[in-house]
Amino acid sequence: MVSKFAANWNNDGSVQASAPRWAALRADMQSAFPTYYSTDTSDPFAYLVGEAIRYLDRLKPPKPTSSPATTPGYLGGDPSGPHYGDVTKARLGENMAPVSEVLQQAADLFKGMPNWNHPLVMANVIPPANTAAIVAAMMTQVFSPNIIEGEYAWDVERTEMETSAILADLIGWDTNEAGGLFTFGGSGCYFYGIKYALTSCLGMDSRCNGIRTDAKVLVSQQGHYCKMNSTDWTGLGMENFIEIDTDETNAMDFEHLESVVRELHAAGTPIAAIVCTMGTTDAFAVDPIDKVRDLVDELYPLDKHSDGVGRPLIYADAVIGWSWLTFKGYDFQANPLGFAPKVLADILKNYNAISKVVHADAIGCDFHKTGWSTYNCSVVMVRDLHRFQELLSRPGSAYLQARTCYNPGLYTLEVSRSGSYSMAAWATLKFMGYEGFRSILGGILELQHYLRHEVIKQEPTVVCVNEEDSGFVTLFRVYKKGVDAEAQYNRELTNPAALTELEANNELQKNVADLLWQWHREGKLLEGSYAPYISYTSGFRPTDYPDENVEPEFICLPSWRLPP
């Protein structure tokens, strides 16, 4: 018997002439959704994806015949936006629109946006995503795996589990005990770390009755500002993180940390977490996490805190630094990739520093930064996944049945998690392997050394201010014509009498960055070249003045060279 609904359609899916209008519209819409069956003929979905890619490709500049600087660092022909003036006038259309038309409108929204793949664009840690990550992430959008449980994601769930195992192995943790969860960026990792720490330190009761104790979170002055987000949104309160001084390398001052920890310990004030930054954004400073571990074990021994209550958890913010772990096992003597001696020394320095992350209880890693994956793509790793699950699990839901052995939706913050995060990271790891990561990371340092020691050194009015750092960014200051940049910078750094000059030259750095930004937005050509898009930063270092109460910061211009 044919139902009254089935009678509206022909066998080929077309609609009967007598069908109501809703059925006709529904038939028209079907071509805008991927089919549930394989198509022997041309697939409308595949065609539309290809068409969308062609729309985007038209926004790119033509391939240059000489320097990349002869092409603009923005997409499309008009960088004057963004245009937000009429957004409140948007209304839902009465009729359906062709998908191709919608995709063309979507592509138009990218016009004027910085082209993160372009060598002229170096404003922040925003590298281009690799093709394996892009396409793999897109594949998840076709079938919508929800990685809160195996039933909803099936073997796509393996991408989270396998990626976590690979990272645990790089870290040096037991891969049978450690685990990871993909979440909403580095702030999400930090948030998970602080929540885990609070529950571990204050006990399960804090989850039911709320946080009623002013536990402390210790983090360096150079620690990421999301320390405010996490202490705020967990309900702990932003007044309860304590900033630890930094040393001349911008790493956490261990003597100050030890003093604060011992004082809080003696007073009986709980420390929920000590956050170690494993690679700051500007200086790539790495906190002494091994010493932090020794201090925690001394004052809060496991035999007296077997359940973790009252014991600080060590969270490592390694969102930028984690990828140096891929030099695990590299033969630094033979140097098979042929890095320059000074670059090789920096690589070894970075690996030795980051490898100490093994001492952490939880770690945040961003694949969308130094993993060259799609935005966003971050994983929080925990040394003891079973304990993490026990502390954060909730009663089951009417919609979640434990039909597989892996059901993170029972203890994650999110009750929906796209498989695109983990798929992008997994595809990146499969594609790049050890040698891919090593060649990109080492190649970045090769470029940094060239920029710092050959290009900038030839410019008397420019000085590199982080020459000895081994991170991803070159920081520099520019001065007016006739000024010896290096001498002036050292004067501003050490002589309080130069404070007024420092402040004036800080304004100069802002003005230079703003002018370059304006030229970028105007598409201005200077001697046949487009202006680079850079920003400015104030987080690199304070002055070395004797009076510690007078610590103005330096404004610097950054050059992030992250394209492969």
Automatic annotation (TrEMBL):
InterPro entries: PyrdxlP-dep_de-COase, PyrdxlP-dep_Trfase, PyrdxlP-dep_Trfase_major. The modification N6-(pyridoxal phosphate)lysine is found at residue 369. Its cofactor is pyridoxal 5'-phosphate. GO terms for biological process: carboxylic acid metabolic process. Residues 59-87 are annotated as: Disordered. Keywords: Decarboxylase, Lyase, Pyridoxal phosphate. GO terms for cellular component: cytoplasm. GO terms for molecular function: aromatic-L-amino-acid decarboxylase activity; pyridoxal phosphate binding. Belongs to the group II decarboxylase family. This is Pyridoxal-dependent decarboxylase family protein.
